[in-house]
Design brief:
The chain is mainly alpha-helical and 283 residues long. Helix content is 71%, strand content 0%.
């Protein structure tokens, strides 16, 4: 969870607070920037995977009763951010307090809302999935992967409006993947995980270099250079699953936190408030 927060904050800094370098001006800085962007771009993939992987635990919790706790976490975090912003800038904005009272009114927290919606639906959905046969689950996974991963990559467009991996459809797909990883104990079938991890990074970064070269050769620009560097590409998904396997499955005794709605919601809400609230210009 902490890795996901670090990646999301890093991605925010790269996208919103950094001048995007141009290939024709400074190729080295261009590659460094997009290498970092590709590595940290899967931060939003990890949290839904965690929700799905620990669904067997979370489904036994009465998450609906904790909605008030979720809002209180958001309220106090947002108010602290407003106070910090006031101390730094010596000014207040009505918008900042409007968001505190009505957090979903301006669509700033679509990712958080989608994850919490998934968390609320987990008990019923998990019970339904537990009743399905294994071959049906695999068929559904293959169908969803073709639709949400393969087709957008082939066409080079965000066909389903996945919005850089923050769309509710993509989040629910990742939660389903997390459930599949746990149910079929996929971690045990991954041999040489650290070699796979290095390979996933190598393939992801190599795609930037080769796709940039091809794009410059054909189009004389870099418009198609990042086809594989979005959270819903096959290479990004491969990198996400291997990283998740290492952090949450193989080294969970050292690095992971106890799965609970409180812990997950605290990580998620706090990170999203920092990135989308009144202090986002300082992050």
């Amino acid at each position: 969870m902490s890795i996901a927060s670090i990646f999301m904050i890093s991605q925010h800094i790269l996208v919103n607070l950094t001048d995007i370098p141009q290939f024709n001006v400074n190729p080295d800085r261009y590659y460094l920037y997009f290498f970092l962007k590709a590595i940290t771009g899967i931060g939003t993939n990890i949290i839904p995977l965690v929700l799905g992987y620990y669904s067997y635990v979370l489904c036994r919790k009465n998450v609906m009763k904790q909605l008030s706790n979720f809002y209180l976490t958001f309220f106090f975090t947002a108010m602290l951010c407003n106070l910090f912003s006031y101390i730094i800038r010596s000014e207040m904005s009505l918008r900042d307090f409007w968001i505190v009272l009505f957090p979903i009114s301006q669509n700033y927290f679509s990712f958080s809302v989608s994850c919490i919606l998934g968390l609320l639906l987990l008990p019923k959905v998990t019970n339904k999935l537990n009743d399905l046969e294994s071959n049906k689950l695999i068929k559904v996974l293959i169908m969803l992967t073709v639709l949400l991963v393969v087709i957008p990559t082939l066409f080079g467009k965000d066909v389903w409006g996945l919005q850089e991996g923050t769309n509710v459809l993509w989040i629910f797909y990742l939660m389903y993947c997390g459930y599949i990883i746990k149910r079929f104990d996929v971690g045990k079938s991954i041999r040489f995980p650290y070699i796979n991890f290095m390979a996933s990074i190598f393939l992801l970064l190599s795609s930037i270099y080769f796709m940039t070269s091809i794009s410059m050769l054909i189009r004389e620009d870099t418009s198609t250079a990042f086809r594989f560097c979005v959270p819903y590409s096959p290479l990004a998904l491969y990198y996400t699953v291997i990283l998740f396997d290492i952090l949450e499955i193989r080294t969970q005794n050292f690095f992971s936190v106890k799965a609970s709605p409180q812990v997950i919601s605290t990580f998620l809400i706090s990170t999203q408030v920092i990135l989308n609230g009144s202090v986002n210009n300082f992050v």
